[in-house]
Amino acid sequence: QSGAIFRTTDRIRLIDHIIGAKDHCCAGEDIGQLMHDGDLTHYFPLHENSKLRKMDADWFRCFVSGAEIDQVRDYFGERIALYFLFMSHLNRWLIFPALMGLVFT
Q1: Which run of H or E residues covers position 24?
Q2: Which of 51, 59, 62, 75 has the fewest CB atoms inside 10 Å of its own CB, making it the most exposed?
Q3: Phi, psi at 48, each rounded to 5°
Q4: pLDDT, tens only, 87-96
Q5: Sign (positive/negative) of CA torsion 35, 41, 42, 46?
Q6: Cα separation, 96 vs 66, whole angstroms
């Protein structure tokens, strides 16, 4: 949803807060207790297939090179995006030592 106010990760956090918080106008459900009692078997958000397909079609730019890291951040959140951005940075810095190792061995 290009015109949405909240990112996917923000919507998931808001819905989780509404379900679990005991604030006014929130459900206040104890998810851990529901799972322990067997009333609830699983509790997780569903994926948005259109956004996943878009990232899958351009996976190298999203996850390896870090050029489209905003898509990853908007979908998975800051922690996951920072991990992939760090890995792309590390890979760039390790290319030269890897090439030197290949040449001199």
Answers
A1: none
A2: 59
A3: -100, 105
A4: 999 999 999 9
A5: negative
A6: 18
Residue for token digits 């259109």? 50
Residue in 57, 55, 50 with CA at minimum distance from that of residue 81:
55
Distance CA 105, CA 103 (A): 6
Rounded to a whole number, what is the largest CA-CA distance in the chain?
Answer: 67
The answer for residues whose C-beta is within 8 angstroms of residue 105's C-beta and 6 or more apart is none
Would you give the DSSP letter of residue 77?
A: -
Whether the full predicted model's pTM is greater than 0.85, yes or no, is no
Query: Tens digits of per-residue pLDDT, 21-30?
Result: 888 888 888 8
Q: What pLDDT digit, counting tens, does each position of 55-88 carry?
A: 999 999 989 998 999 999 989 999 999 999 999 9
